[in-house]
Amino acid sequence: MLLASDQALIERVVTADCHDSFGILVERHQSDLRYSLRQMTGWNEALADDLAQETFIQAFKSLKNYQGTAKFSSWIYRIAYNQMVSHFRLARNREVSASEEILKSHSQQIALSTTSELDLHRDLADSMKALPTKQRMAVHLHLHRELTHSEISTIMGIPLGTVKTLINRGKKTLRSLLSSWNPEDKL
Amino acid sequence: MKQSTDIENLFNQARNSEPYFSNRRFGSRVLTVIKLQEPVPFWKEVTIEMLGALIGCALAYSFFPFNDLIAGIPTKFVIGPSVLLSIAGVISCTCAIAYWTAERSRL
To answer: Using the beta-carbon criterion (under 8 Å), do A146 and B30 form an inter-chain contact?
Structure first.
């Protein structure tokens, strides 16, 4: 069976208000987005799913404005990123760069966490919590989603140079956070 | 672990073992919210309001003694000083209540 492209589905949603086509788009992209948002929220499943839901609702409302210049997934990530930033701003979740204390406590938590199938994902999400939102997003998109600097720049709406700086700083912080993490210890 | 490659390896492992989240509940929830948030078309809203008004008028006409009320309206009306004073009193009271209601929060 030939699968309809994202662009074809979007056209169907915009021209014929076809909810089923949007349902297919949701099905296609929801898992990746929900995973990414779990990584962004320290594996807070409820919050991540709420943000993902809001992202798709927002996407549906603004689908007419989708130009098609970027991939649909990138566009979705841009909306999700804005949703996340607004959420953290509203929740007054004040961000500070990783202090020595945070680094230490996170390293201990990571080293002591119990073994399970999701350990790696949860531990990564936990250590990512120490990074400011922008760094967290840039690092995740670069290292996990393997997006180019240019794509990340488009998604986050920041200059290319800033993206590189964010990734380098994020990597540096994560290295020190995850220095004690060893998957072999958990087997 | 080698410090230079640990982060990349870790993210590679995470990517390769990324769990798939089922769409069953999530997708239907998203579509339900979208349907609920859809604005009602203008013609539909007007039709519903007109139907409601017609039903309301029909019910009121069948239950309310309109003819008696109309018959109760005086056909002659003499404006005397006492009537004028009463009207002025009612208007003053209404203005006072309106002013008090509007300015209550400021007082």
So the answer is: no
